[in-house]
Amino acid sequence: MMLDGALNGCDSAMTPPDTRPLQQALRTVLGPDRVCADPTALARLARTTAIEGTTPGLIVYPRTCHDVAAVMKLARDHRCGVHPVSCGRNWGYGDACGTRDGQIILDMSRMNAIVEVDAELGYAVVEPGVTQGQLADYLKSNNLPFTADASGAGRDASIVGNVAERGFGHSQNGDRFANVANLEVVLPNGRILNTGLGHFPGARAAHCYKWGLGPSLDGLFTQSNLGVITRLTFWLVPKTEQFAAFFFLADREENIGDIIEALRPLRMRGTLRTAIHIFNDLRLITGAQLAPARVDPESAALSPAEITALRRQHGIGAWAGSGALYGSPAEIRAAAQAVKRALRRVRGVSTVVVINRTQLEFIEAFVKPLKKLHWCASLVARVEKLRLGFDLLSGIPSNDSLTGGMWRAPGTIERPPTPGDDPLDYRAGFLWVSPLIPMRKHDVDTFLALVKPIFARYRFDFQITLSLVTARALCGVSTISFDRDNAAETARAHECYQVLLTTLFAQGFIPYRMSNLSMAAIPAGTDSFFDLVHELKQHLDPTNTLSPGHYDPLSSAAL
Amino acid sequence: MMLDGALNGCDSAMTPPDTRPLQQALRTVLGPDRVCADPTALARLARTTAIEGTTPGLIVYPRTCHDVAAVMKLARDHRCGVHPVSCGRNWGYGDACGTRDGQIILDMSRMNAIVEVDAELGYAVVEPGVTQGQLADYLKSNNLPFTADASGAGRDASIVGNVAERGFGHSQNGDRFANVANLEVVLPNGRILNTGLGHFPGARAAHCYKWGLGPSLDGLFTQSNLGVITRLTFWLVPKTEQFAAFFFLADREENIGDIIEALRPLRMRGTLRTAIHIFNDLRLITGAQLAPARVDPESAALSPAEITALRRQHGIGAWAGSGALYGSPAEIRAAAQAVKRALRRVRGVSTVVVINRTQLEFIEAFVKPLKKLHWCASLVARVEKLRLGFDLLSGIPSNDSLTGGMWRAPGTIERPPTPGDDPLDYRAGFLWVSPLIPMRKHDVDTFLALVKPIFARYRFDFQITLSLVTARALCGVSTISFDRDNAAETARAHECYQVLLTTLFAQGFIPYRMSNLSMAAIPAGTDSFFDLVHELKQHLDPTNTLSPGHYDPLSSAAL
Prior knowledge:
The structure is a homodimer. By secondary structure, chain A is of the alpha+beta class. Chain A has four domains: 20-107, 2-Layer Sandwich (Uridine Diphospho-n-acetylenolpyruvylglucosamine Reductase, domain 2), CATH 3.30.43; 114-238, Uridine Diphospho-n-acetylenolpyruvylglucosamine Reductase, domain 3; 242-506, FAD-linked oxidases, C-terminal domain (Vanillyl-alcohol Oxidase, Chain A, domain 3, 3-Layer(aba) Sandwich), CATH 3.40.462.10; 522-557. The first copy, chain A, is 33% helix and 18% strand. Chain A is built from 16 helices and 19 strands. Chain A has helices at residues 20-30, 39-46, 65-77, 132-141, 159-164, 256-269, 281-286, 304-314, 329-344, 357-367, 377-393, 411-414, 441-457, 487-506, 528-540, 553-557; strands spanning 35-36, 58-60, 82-85, 104-107, 114-118, 123-126, 146-147, 180-186, 192-194, 228-235, 237-238, 242-250, 276-280, 319-327, 349-356, 428-433, 436-438, 463-468, 473-483. Chain A is globular and about 65 Å long. Mean pLDDT of chain A is 91; it is low at 1-14. At the A-B interface, strand 9, helix 6, helix 9, strand 17 and helix 15 of A face strand 9, helix 6, helix 9, strand 17 and helix 15 of B.
């Protein structure tokens, strides 16, 4: 799609403008090795797990916020769009693609300093290139009494990038945006800003207190194109005398509403303080294996009989959930008792396990010799999933959790994937839809009754995670996995995705985030909220240089 | 200071402009009984607990957000400032005073609908006139399984007004701004906006999820003059099987650093989920009685001997703290054990009491007959304070907690106050300084060593509450109480206040909020944060109509 090194400006000129002066200027300011126009590298960043990506015009690698500021100014002066990526692992939500063709991708992966970790107050100051694996390793190797919230996005996912899109992890700090402070932001005009208390010289509580004095501006710079976050303070999770994970299984699909009702009071009062994640059968199975050979080549979906067999093989039912408990042994015992009492009352809940590290290691030692026995596969698989869940909950991100993206990836036929592989290297196709749902049976049931038939109509496997991300809301992250080498299936996936989004917006199930490549699906209508967002954008970035259209539907619609 | 009904425009014209056309226009739109230019009423709103208030030009009483919008537009067209107040109980932080003379006070106390309470998801949708007493009564009389976070500001304080200034209460939802969603805001140009998910038609999670989709704008409208909040969703605190309050006493001032070190891990891991408030001796004493006759008329401060006697009389030491525990009896036992273990290790901590409602009522029944016995006064006083603390923690606001403001109020000599009285009716003088402090010994000790000598130098009683408002920060709310009838003492209070603010900003102890009448004390300097705030203001309110200067130090400084 792209000519060699040429740039499509963010204005809609028919012929690409001559970008050599911009390239020259960027090389002068950043150094020649920090500007890349290599077609192979550009094509790499054009790849997507979605239907169609965008192709960048250039890639730049800033070292500091001042570099970022310089890029913003030069891009503005040369009328070229800029799109920031932290580590480029935004799979399923637009990957490392810019919002339009021809932009400069501001690749901040080399700004990867863990600037400071405070072992008393429990925070880490990190740059956009810091990955969750890197921070977990740092905390462990320095034997610090803290862990970091981990998400299922793998070891190489950026923390700042995830916060900028308001992602969620698994720990008590799972609502990540609620657990950061003191953002350093580069505005579209190149000015550098510190939010919260960070802009007051010597402010002692800058890393400890989110809101600051005066308007709280942090929210302006998440899910937006109003600034580039180049540093932030990430609050850590204290290690306690004991840590326990709990897991539960439910047999039947229709049990879920009652499970939500049982968990809500515990979540709201703080007995449960972590984000609870509940996976359906196929979400668990796709996370553990590749798609089996299709029986019906016209369908991307497994048959009910296949699903039943896979459930049996993996030792699961319709749903499996996980969460964690912190504190003294007595506190954990009391909380575990409350969780068990609540869940065991729910019809269909067959298993509730609360397990600490010692117990898990004991079980693993017991199961190890059984691995070769075929008839023990279900038990072994269960224990392996226990470990994965346990690690995530205790702040150890794992690449094993990425396997989900490989389900139906055509590239896996040529070469079986190993943990940590980039789904894009396997031409994996998947799209995520992640609406917010009030935490109660009625809304969850309504949501599932709405979404499941759409997956069936378009013949895709229905994979979903219900995440109790806050005390009152859960998020239903559904995945459409498709075979990119199959044009008809890809077209069907696209249509399924559009229908899902349209239906969910119309029924009031609003996504908590959107893919970079689907912003036009946000119904802006006559919405005074997005009017204001667009106005702020026009004021702060009159040339529309930074990620045009990103969460600014009035601008996307105009294209 | 004010001529009859005349207005000082927000522009600095020497002669007040003729405001009759504005009054006429407001009466036409709102109705004649909703616009007040009565000099007595205007003078009432000019009263302040601070050094000098501002006098309004008019008062208007909107009924709806559309009324608010109409006022904003008329005021803009007539170039007159507008300052919103919810219930006008912002004592110590600017009271009901506008930011400058001659403004329209937008009194929203009559917009007092509890629009909706959801008994499953635990939220209340409230207008600015809803008081914390009103909401507590509503929840109780409807026998709902929730309580509302209560602050010490008394039954008649507005919830929305407190959220708009990012105040704190005592429960697990003590960080109030963190526990609201879906603001309805009137912009300075009269447009009406819903934040979070509230602007999407039929969004089901609008009341349950704070951040929304796209930039999160809520923060823009707190501690700011960028919009008027006319409605919001306030999350409630679930009642649990059991509720217990805990209280502790410490003998010596120097114990505080170790107490903070002991509490921090419990606060950070979530064993303690409420805002813990720790009062020093004089803060407790001023909350319980009026100032005794002064021994030294040159000093507003008690002597060490007097303080010792009062401590003995009230049965307290240097510090007293409170917090609450929620959950099942087993959870509360486990948490209580953790709290006791942590605090009893601290040298100087003499008492740690964990008490539930049944136990408290038993003690009260036991103490009741002792009330008349003089030698039991200390015991009785302790139990009364237990009840006050217990009620606040369990969501029952009380007017008893307002007595603190009456310490040294000259009006109390003429007429002893009763709970619920307005401190302004007694010409009470007090100024609050409320800096944020990292939650660790070193910073707390540094802070106290800085502040206490300033109180001593200016001969004022050192009253302070240390509030562990979040997991990592505490807030040191110090009060300067002064006798407004004594000109020299008033001047000293003013100087003490200015020196405190200057010193604290210089030493990095930044206040979490400021008085409406002291915005010029914020050092804006070359701060790009306040540059942006000022820019946003100029864009959203080019006529500087809404609360000019409010958390916009670049605008205050320009005056």
